[in-house]
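Message: Just now I want nothing more than another pair of eyes on a protein record. I am handing you a single protein, as its sequence and its fold in token form. As I understand it, each token names a local backbone shape. Take your time, and here it is.
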Amino acid sequence: METLKIDILHPKAKTLLQDLADLKLIRIQKSKSQSEFQDLLEKLRTKADVTPSLDEITKEVEAVRKARYEK
């Protein structure tokens, strides 16, 4: 089996690929790494009451770095 990454430039190409999948000649799989990350990000954002500001994020990152380098 050979795996290829294909960029679809025209909607008809997607239809042709789906037809090949229906004939069980190919298998179409979506990339999981990007979609899993997006799902996690959306899940975290929906649970948050308030989005942290850039200053709050920077302070937290600096605190974690300081704690790491003090070890």
About this structure: The first helix runs from residue 11 to 22. Residues 1 and 26 are 10 Å apart (CA to CA). The chain has three helices and no strands.
